[in-house]
């Protein structure tokens, strides 16, 4: 499932279709799929790959897949599309719970571990959308702009 990717242009969507049943998607696999999709797009269009934007997209997909595994019951779908203006990643999971930003300290003012993923996603992506899925669960889509 993590190998699935496509590209999109003004002429419409081009890209790979899913081949075979969905399987577990780990953060490292998702990162490789994003890197491969962006690199292929740069080669195909003979343009320079924006390494900083690629790094941001890799961090965003890492946070989204990790959060889906830790808090959402696992990744149920993953997509990456390279647009003319950036890269769009979508990660679906089994949970209906929406992402939240946690305070860095608990009520007793003790520092909490974790809780940084969602703010990182919101800061690095120019557009973040959370959609409830008809069969249950949610899909989070984030677009990281090329500079």
From TrEMBL:
UniProt feature coiled coil, ranges: none
Pfam families: HATPase_c_2
Keywords assigned by UniProt, alphabetized: ATP-binding, Kinase, Nucleotide-binding, Serine/threonine-protein kinase, Transferase
Limits of the Histidine kinase/HSP90-like ATPase domain: 36-142
One Gene Ontology MF term: protein serine/threonine kinase activity
Region entry Disordered, spans: 1-28
Entry superkingdom: Bacteria
Matching InterPro entries: Anti-sigma-factor_SerPK, HATPase_C_sf, HATPase_dom
Record-linked PANTHER family: ANTI-SIGMA-F FACTOR RSBW, ANTI-SIGMA-F FACTOR RSBW-RELATED
Record's protein name: ATP-binding protein
Organism field: Streptomyces guryensis
């Amino acid at each position: 499932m993590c190998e699935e990717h496509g590209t999109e242009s003004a002429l419409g969507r081009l890209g790979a279709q899913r081949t075979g049943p969905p399987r577990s998607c780990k953060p490292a696999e998702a990162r490789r799929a994003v890197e491969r999709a962006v690199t292929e797009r740069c080669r195909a269009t003979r343009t320079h790959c924006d390494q900083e934007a690629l790094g941001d997209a890799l961090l965003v997909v890492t946070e989204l897949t990790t959060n889906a595994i830790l808090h959402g019951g696992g990744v149920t779908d993953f997509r990456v599309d390279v647009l003319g203006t950036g890269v769009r990643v979508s990660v679906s999971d089994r949970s209906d719970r929406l992402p939240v930003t946690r305070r860095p300290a608990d009520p007793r003012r003790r520092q909490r571990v974790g809780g940084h993923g969602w703010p990182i996603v919101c800061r690095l992506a120019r557009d973040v959308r959370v959609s409830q899925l008809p069969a249950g669960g949610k899909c989070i889509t984030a677009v990281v702009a090329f500079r």
